[in-house]
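User: Hey, my collaborator sent me this sequence without any context and asked if I could get a structure. I don't really work with proteins. Can you help?
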Amino acid sequence: MKRKKIEHFIIKKVGTAINQYSMICEGDKVLVAVSGGKDSLALLNVLQERKKHLPIDYTLKAVHISTDYENNPHINKRKLIEFFESIGCEYVFKEIAIAKTNKLKREDCFWCSWNRRKTLFETADELGFTKIAFGHHKDDIVETILMNMIWNGELSGINPVQSLFRGKIIVIRPLVLLEEKDIRDYVESIKLVAIKSRCPRNYDSKRAVIKEIIQRLVKENPDIKTNIIKAPHRIKSDYLFDITDLAG
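Assistant: No problem. I've predicted the 3D structure and written it out in structure-token form, which is a compact way to encode the shape of the chain:
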């Protein structure tokens, strides 16, 4: 009973997000970015499950990108193939060299993410897919807003739907109404086995620092995440000032 309740909640939330932001329509070809982590596995599983019961028809294909920062990526590949085939979803794998082509010797998250996304966009174009689905959830949005404020000095986050390259590619994020703990409960309830990240900076990234800060704040105020998301839309201009002098 508990499993059915969790599944119903997750599928309902994803459905609400898809409908609210018009993420998937009849005839769409959606490429789902699957890292192997719980978020992307849950996303693909839910989208594939919903597809069986919806009156509209759309195409799903999973894509996994591995890099030369990882140790033995073929282990992950075998596990992912088993998962993709178990739910009846088509898939494609891409391997890219980041470390070998990194003349600046950068190992930050931005550099890796930029190369992965470039490959995702190229793969979508190559296969004729117009939409790419990412497993970003509510916590990711909150963390991104704070990261951009603190490290970039700007106010920006993650959009549920984002048009790129003049509408040639549409990025969608069907998990935006769910918190990470919701997805964790779902993955555990249906016994999905996530693949452990082999990223060399998985535990010392800027996002990990922000995640820890948010966890501390939530203990003091459970509405912290929602408040952070609302803040950019509730700007009180009378209390803002010209920072030209302070910014130097």
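In plain terms: The radius of gyration is 19 Å. You can pass these tokens on to your collaborator as they are.
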